[in-house]
Design a protein that fits this description.
The protein has eleven helices and 17 strands. By secondary structure, it is α/β, with parallel strands linked by helices. The protein folds into two domains: 67 residues, OB fold (Dihydrolipoamide Acetyltransferase, E2P), CATH 2.40.50; 246 residues, Rossmann fold (3-Layer(aba) Sandwich). Strands 11-10-9-12-8-13 form a six-stranded parallel beta sheet, with helices on both faces. The radius of gyration is 21 Å and the shape is globular. The relative contact order is 0.14.
């Protein structure tokens, strides 16, 4: 289940909020590795490291790092306070379980606020099944409402540490996000929450977000089956938003560049999430105009969705420049803006529609 290796740090590379890249010598060969200093300490050249090299050996794209498990000869100091504040354990009962201060737990300064909060007050919440949609959604929001406060709620369907995402770190630095919330077993956000429900409430009432974006972290899990995809959870997120009195806006997964039949037009994952999992209605923005070769197929697929959803045509005027201006590389399944434009436009018009609801 785990491929273990020992190595020695050869060089320390680039870092971003919560993570640092390393080159590690393993059995005489250089290996690309990633460390989370909050968990293992600050690596330096010459450190011995214990690595999990499973993802690297499997050739995974997003997760293609050897992960530093420990610096066994130089352990980090103990946390300053072991008995609080913060009693919420995430990645529970794994060797890497972490203790954090939950925004909704009793020791939190926000506990009373969240104990009383029960509504999102109509806040638009954009739901995406892939992490790669996040920068495009933000481009759409900020094109029309540049001063909008947007928070990101990361679910635990992909990476558990938010620190893995260079995209989020860069978007925060650029001022495009006012804060992050990690929910479920995910951790590393500005705020930690037990459930998606409290995470949404924290984004609205603690971070004062005008718009909330919900998506899993990098590295989704898919099996090529209708139900076996971690992003199907966006259907459950629609239900959570509805229960809390928010306005669900679905960022449809559209594609004209994916060679797989099940993802052409509207991905079967979106059709499952909104057609079968979501029991409440959502706004489903569609970029206008659609690519000539995909328009008829997409219209037919959307026509199969339940009537509780509202398909909204949203123009893409001005979004090309906005998408090209985002401070991160746009990439989904290895395709950029020019290779699969409709995917990124669909995410951007979800953001634009959310902005129109403010």
């Amino acid at each position: 289940m785990i491929r273990w290796r020992r190595g020695q740090v050869q060089s320390v590379g680039r870092g971003w909020a919560g993570a640092v890249e390393l080159t590690v010598s393993v059995e005489g060969a250089p290996v690309r590795a990633l460390a989370y200093p909050a968990l293992v300490g600050e690596p330096v050249v010459g450190d011995d490291v214990l690595l999990n090299t499973t993802a690297l050996a499997m050739g995974l794209g997003t997760g293609g790092y050897a992960l530093v498990v420990a610096l066994p000869s130089r352990l980090p100091p103990d946390p300053p306070v072991l008995d609080g504040p913060g009693h919420m354990v995430k990645a529970r009962y794994t060797p890497g379980q972490v203790t954090v201060l939950g925004v909704d737990e009793q020791d939190s300064p926000h506990h009373a606020l969240l104990a009383a909060a029960s509504s999102l007050d109509g806040t638009p919440v954009v739901l995406a099944d892939l992490h790669s949609a996040l920068p495009a959604v933000l481009a759409g929001v900020h094109t029309d409402r540049p001063s909008a406060r947007v928070a990101y709620v990361m679910t635990d369907g992909g990476a558990l540490p938010l620190w893995f995402s260079r995209t989020v770190a860069t978007l925060r630095e650029a001022g495009l996000l006012v804060g992050t919330v990690t929910v479920g077993q995910a951790f590393g956000g500005d705020l930690e929450a037990v459930t998606l429900h409290t995470g949404l409430l924290a984004a609205r009432h603690v971070l004062s977000a005008d718009v909330v974006v919900v998506a899993q972290g990098p590295g989704n899990l898919g099996t090529g089956t209708p139900w076996g995809f971690s992003g199907v959870a966006v259907g459950e997120a629609v239900n959570a938003v509805s229960v809390l009195g928010g306005r669900a806006v679905g960022s449809l997964r559209l594609s004209s560049g994916d060679a797989r039949e099940r993802h052409q037009g509207v991905s079967h994952h979106s059709l499952t999430a909104y057609g079968k999992v979501a029991l409440a209605g959502a706004d489903l923005p569609v970029p206008t105009p659609l690519p000539a070769g995909s328009a008829e197929r997409i219209a037919a697929q959307l026509g199969e969705l339940p009537e509780r959803h509202r398909v909204v045509e949203v123009p893409v005027d001005g979004l090309d420049a906005a998408l090209r201006a985002v401070p991160v590389k746009l990439s989904s399944m290895g395709r950029g803006l020019d290779e699969d434009r409709v995917y990124f436009e669909a995410a951007a018009v979800a953001g634009r529609h959310a902005a129109s609801l403010l």
